[in-house]
Model the fold of this input.
Amino acid sequence: MRVLFVCHGNICRRAMAEFILKALVKAKGHESQYYIDSAAVSTEEIGNPIYPQANRCLNQPRYGGPVVHRRFRNHLSGPVGRL
Done:
């Protein structure tokens, strides 16, 4: 199953949704059955790190923390990103 989370800037809500779902899927042992990714609909946050408050929340052990610190670069083009 493929899951794509889409958010305006891709640094807070999307990050939380992606990492929480990844942790839930991993806990159930279904990682090989899922491809989980994310994208932004704007370019204004591309290159920025995860929002600090979201990162603190996600670094809790129940979410599989620590979160790998990455800068978000995904961007959808067109009305639905041509998925």
